[in-house]
Specification:
Helices cover about 35% and strands about 10% of the residues. The chain contains 4 helices and 3 strands, in the order αβαβααβ. It has a 3-stranded antiparallel sheet, with no helix packed on it.
Length: about 90
């Protein structure tokens, strides 16, 4: 999964790896932050749980290539795993 995410990130996104972001019971967790344009449109980071399959990683890749939060609608595989994380 990490290889897929790094491959599609290219120049349009940054992939950072961390041990645990808090909700460890939902691993693997990915946080997709909005682009500056997405943030201007009011988008916030989207937390996505259980991203350990190629299908979900591919859906994340498709979404980020399309612009991510605030720009493009998240695919069903991402929406089904999205959750709110209170900090």
């Amino acid at each position: 999964m990490l290889t897929t995410l790094n491959a599609v990130a290219g120049e349009s996104a940054t992939v950072r790896v961390a041990d645990c972001l808090g909700p460890c019971e939902r691993a693997d967790v990915v946080v997709v932050g909005p682009s500056p344009e997405g943030r201007q449109r009011g988008a916030r980071p989207v937390w996505v749980a259980r991203v350990g399959t190629a299908r979900v990683a591919d859906a994340l890749a498709q979404w980020t290539r399309a612009g991510g939060p605030g720009i493009a609608e998240a695919p069903p595989a991402v929406l089904a795993r999205a959750f709110r994380h209170g900090r």
